Backbone:
């Protein structure tokens, strides 16, 4: 699926099948590919088939990058077609394991919320927030759904604001405030005969829909290719014609950052970086029946890596490690110019 393909125009069954075939071809990327395939199966209403994909990953014997995420997605899916007891057991196991990644927490908490288990959802959101954000001055972007979800559930429960709700307000970016956006009484205003009230509610719903679209839209990113220093040396020694593309490692890094900033300034969303290796590049060139010396192959290679789930989102948080691998924080390395602004 192209990044700009509208969701309503996607053949979810065929897209799932394509991703499953790609996973067979690239087993090292099976986790990312099969998770996307399972999402398409769920959207197509093929929930048992989605569960089979989650089980395929969990029983593969492979060292998964995020097994808790796979289990969380499986639990959420199981509950949607009647397997509540098994879903609850998986959710309890995830909460006991206390993963350090926010994504599994968000999925299981939202599954509880979706099935009107508001107290349990609130407890789950709160456990995650305390585990991941205690003592953290600037919440990472990945934890924002935890704060926002907890705020939403607390509004439905009628709970008073606390310090975590204040933090949720601070990371909220939509023009409509969280208290208003998460007001459980808003639904009643849809029955109003007052045009001004209806217009105001339409604006609120549009804002909320925009937030959901942003959260649910996860196409593979527009990715820029990064060669680590040893890989770049090996590449240019093996294929001297590519030395014109990469006059030096420092120039390579500067070009990546500049290209991504230019794309961001033009309004291009969902940017990322993929890391190349010479063996995988050579294999890709062979599959395309093209010489690795052909520079026009490089952007195709980057796009293929991104489609296989290999991209890392750009820009990192200021305090996170820089994408270049220097070991320094992004705000003190390639993000220093952006940080100064």
Residues:
């Amino acid at each position: 699926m192209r990044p700009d393909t509208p969701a309503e125009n996607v053949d979810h069954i065929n897209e799932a099948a394509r991703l499953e075939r790609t996973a067979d071809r690239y087993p090292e990327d099976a986790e990312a590919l099969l998770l996307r395939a399972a999402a398409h199966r769920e959207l197509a209403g093929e929930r048992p088939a989605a569960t089979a994909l989650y089980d395929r990953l969990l029983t593969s014997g492979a060292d998964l990058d995020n097994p808790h995420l796979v289990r969380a997605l499986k639990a959420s899916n199981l509950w949607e077609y009647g397997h509540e007891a098994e879903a609850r057991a998986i959710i309890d196991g995830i909460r006991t394991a206390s993963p350090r990644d926010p994504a599994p927490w968000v999925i299981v908490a939202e599954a509880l919320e979706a099935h009107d288990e508001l107290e349990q959802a609130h407890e789950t959101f709160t456990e995650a927030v305390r585990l991941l954000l205690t003592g953290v001055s600037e919440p990472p972007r990945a934890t924002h759904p935890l704060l926002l979800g907890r705020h939403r559930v607390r509004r439905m429960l009628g709970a008073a604001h606390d310090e975590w709700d204040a933090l949720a307000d601070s990371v909220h970016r939509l023009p409509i405030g969280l208290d208003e956006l998460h007001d459980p009484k808003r639904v009643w205003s849809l029955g109003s005969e007052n045009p001004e009230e209806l217009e105001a509610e339409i604006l609120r719903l549009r804002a909320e829909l925009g937030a959901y679209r942003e959260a649910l839209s996860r196409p593979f990113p527009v990715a820029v290719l990064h060669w680590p220093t040893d890989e770049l040396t090996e590449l240019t020694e093996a294929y001297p014609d590519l030395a014109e593309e990469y006059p030096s490692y420092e120039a390579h890094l500067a070009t990546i950052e500049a290209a991504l900033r230019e794309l961001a300034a033009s309004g291009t969303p969902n940017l990322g970086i993929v890391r190349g290796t010479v063996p995988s590049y050579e294999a890709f060139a062979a599959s395309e029946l093209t010489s690795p010396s052909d520079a026009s192959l490089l952007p195709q290679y980057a796009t293929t890596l991104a489609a296989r789930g290999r991209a890392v989102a750009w820009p990192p948080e200021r305090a996170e490690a820089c994408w270049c691998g220097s070991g320094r924080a992004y705000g003190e390395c390639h993000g220093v110019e952006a940080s100064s602004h």
